[in-house]
Design goal:
Strand 4 (about 105-110), helix 4 and strand 5 form a beta-alpha-beta unit. The chain starts with 6 loop residues before the first strand and ends with a helix. The strands form three sheets. The protein has a seven-stranded parallel sheet with strand order 3-2-1-4-5-6-7, with helices on both faces. It has about 425 residues and is α/β, with parallel strands linked by helices. The protein folds into two domains: about 5-200 and about 400-415, Glycogen Phosphorylase B (Rossmann fold); about 205-395, Glycogen Phosphorylase B (Rossmann fold). The protein contains 15 helices and 15 strands. This is Glycosyl transferase. Pfam families: Glyco_transf_4, Glycos_transf_1. GO terms for molecular function: glycosyltransferase activity. InterPro entries: Glyco_trans_1 (IPR001296), Glyco_trans_4-like_N (IPR028098).
């Protein structure tokens, strides 16, 4: 995927650490763009810098409750005097033009459709008309969607808050919102793009940088089933069965991966031999992309991530289920870990596992056919709604996927026109 080097400014009434739904979206977007090597600046009425390399520029005239702005709107409503509104609009426009020099894209969140700062909305419309910058109205909401709005907002200059400007690109967050905005602005809904809000698993789970590198390298957001086996490299952990089961899943058309932690001791000959044996099996079955031994994980750069630098908890967070095929165990701590993190368990039918998780896990016999075990995994995945929705959330709503599939193509499209 080729990424053009865009310079992006994000504009809103307020920015983090101010708490709010749109403020959180702004934070996630800014982090996302930086992660994808785009330059980002946030412009707001209130807020502070929250990340290196993401400057935050503050001008109180952009606030949603600025006293000067409110006084000017009151004057306009009572005496039909627009002079102070126009004066504020010019001050905001001069400020924004200065801040937007050398920027390619301006993303405006809500200002153009909400009643909180009319001169700022007017200024943005004029900037779209006058500057060589692509303006995106990222519209979450509109005052006109609520029946109790004051009817003065149907009259000039207030009605600019529902005006369609062909120089502005329109984005909203759901199909239902797209229909509402199309009706409001009296345009074809194809003139409005839909970019869903997302969630960032990296910050939500506070994932370690090494986990993030593995996620990206293995495309873990776009799988059907991810198994985690947090086991040491020892024959009684029965890792061969995990490899064979993943092969069976792949043969059934499932996009599956097994994350096998396999703590590695290069000084222990038996460990090295077992590691080599597993690698040979993976190659024989031709599933190198599906059975991931994290004992000595090698990145495309050649850098090796040793297993002791991989956080087990992170792997639970991004897996769909715990797979534990041990031949023999004294206890089974991973069962408790899975219980704490609410992920399904599929494990071998051995006494300690029965004792711990009898009615709460899916069991298989150690001599059971590999295809039968694979079918059990598929059944657990398909019958557990939380697991299915987790997988859908990662695939459709992780910010990184949204960026690749929707936001970057949008930037490229508007920039070509």
């Amino acid at each position: 995927m080729h990424i053009m080097k865009y310079n992006i400014a994000i504009l809103h009434y307020s920015a983090p650490p101010v708490v709010g739904g749109v403020e959180e979206v702004i934070k996630q977007q800014a982090l996302l763009f930086r992660r994808n090597l785009l330059n980002v600046k946030i412009i707001a009425g209130k807020g502070a810098q929250f990340e290196n390399y993401i400057p935050v520029v503050i001008n109180p005239l952009l606030l949603s409750n600025n006293d000067e702005v409110n006084d000017a709107i009151n004057l306009l409503q009572q005496k039909k005097d627009i002079s102070r509104i126009n004066s504020l609009k010019e001050r905001i426009k001069v400020f924004l033009k200065s801040e937007l020099q050398n920027f390619d894209i301006l993303i405006v969140h809500n200002i153009l459709n909400m009643r909180y700062n009319l001169p700022a909305a007017m200024a943005v419309h004029e900037i779209a008309d006058e500057m060589d910058i692509k303006v995106i109205n990222w519209a979450h909401d509109s005052l006109y969607f609520y029946e109790d709005y004051e009817k003065i907002y149907d009259t000039p200059p207030f009605d600019i808050l529902k005006k369609y400007n062909p120089k502005i690109n329109y984005v909203t967050i759901t199909e239902s919102r797209r229909k509402l905005f199309a009706k409001l602005m009296n345009v074809d809904k194809d003139r409005i793009f839909v970019v869903k809000n997302g969630i960032d698993p990296i910050t939500f789970f506070r994932l370690d940088i090494n986990t993030v590198r593995i996620i990206n390298n293995e495309d873990l957001y776009n799988q059907d089933i991810i198994l985690v086996q947090p086991s040491r490299l020892h024959p009684r952990k029965n890792i061969e069965l995990t490899i064979k089961v993943v092969k069976a899943l792949v043969d059934k058309g499932v996009k599956a991966k097994a994350l096998i932690t396999g703590a590695f001791d290069p000084h222990e000959k038996n460990t090295v031999n077992y590691f080599n044996k597993l690698n040979t099996l993976i190659d024989e079955l031709n599933i190198r992309e599906h059975a991931i031994l994290l004992a000595r994980y090698t990145l495309p750069s050649g850098e090796v991530i040793e297993s002791d630098r991989v956080k087990i908890r992170d792997l639970y967070h991004i897996a769909d289920m715990l797979f534990l095929p041990s031949i023999q165990e004294g206890f089974g701590i991973p069962l408790l870990e899975a219980g704490m993190l609410k992920i399904p368990i599929v494990c071998s039918d051995i006494p300690p596992f029965r004792e711990i998780a009898n009615n709460y896990a899916t069991f298989f016999k150690l001599d059971e056919d590999v295809n039968s075990i694979a079918d059990k995994l598929i059944k657990v995945s398909e019958s557990t709604k939380t697991t299915r929705f987790f997988r859908k959330t990662l695939r459709d709503y992780s910010w990184d996927n949204i960026f690749k599939k929707t936001i970057l193509p949008l930037f490229n499209k508007i920039y070509e026109h």
